[in-house]
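Request: Not sure, any thoughts?
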Amino acid sequence: MKKLFVQTVLTSLFLCTIIVSCKKDSINPAPTITFITEAGYTSTAATVFEGDSVLIGLQCLWNGTDALKTLSISTNDVLIGSPVIISEAHSQSFIYYVKIKKSSTPIENWVFTITDAQGEKSSINITLTSNTGVRPTPTISFITGLTYTSSDKSVLESTDVLVGIHSIWNEIDAIETITVYKNDVMVDVPIEIPVGSYNEYSMDYHITKTADPTETWKFEVTDAFGAKSSVSLTLTREIPPSVFTCTIGAQDNLAELSYYSLTSKLNYNSTDALTNQTIIDFIGAYDATNLLHLISPNATASTLPEPYKSVLPTWTTRNNTQFIVSTLSVGQFDAITTEAPIISAYTGAASKKAKDLQVDKVVSFLTAGGKYGIFKVTAATASLSGKVTIQIKMQQ
């Protein structure tokens, strides 16, 4: 009887040992799953605009014993489709990529679960929150510098205008094209941004000024989302000034007549000037006070030498030409090629006499018809029978 009891106890202990040992052998580590953290992948919580996509990479590894079987994906506790079945070839190491497009749901909690052959699981999650702010647009600006035009400008016809464009992405969407418009009409096809420059791109663009009075040029950058930004400038056709030379005599000079018309570009004697008084702009004169000078037909007659003191009051039309001694140098005068500096040079106190004319003196004037002009003295003889030669630049 005693022998049987001992045998029973030993048998029970043996069975117990076997059971415990088997249970220990069945506890294996769970598989592992991690996010890929390389550039271009989202691996942490992110704030995303609705409609934008994020790329997630998953690295799954077995526990060294049990093969990987499935990968399931859920968002906000709802399973997305069927679990991904992992093939035997990838049962030890499995890489999976998923592109998620942000929905209108304010917060999305995405969970990725790997399961092995023993049913062991591991999960990781990532939260995507809706960005409720204003989606940024790409930026575009003009390149500035001595050789670039970056604002409205007046230029002569056929002038080559160099414009520099610099565009930058919004740190979300790659920039894709730059489109050029002239007066709201697209010029050619959009310029595609070269590969490797989707984040930032600069380009030069040449414009040849046409005969159009004004041209508005717009440069528009568009990104992958379709967002646009633009900059523009206006080119105005600058008309070159009329340039000519004339010689005007003082009152006693019989060879170089004293009355001059900017319209006809001719000199007149006293008789012909009376007939053509509506177009006379300058009159040559000399006296001890003003020396060699030009006078306006509308000058106060009592201040003029004879014969003008007596003749001009008989005219019914006396053009009111105004003169201002200019601060421009001869070099600055010679550099004038457009009308703008002629207009801007007319500043200061105006007079109806351009006095003491000497070589290299520069004088601005305004005609009775409202045209601006400027002249420099190239030769001068100061006497009653003297003369002055001037080069004139004026509005056409």
The chain is about 10% helix and 45% strand.
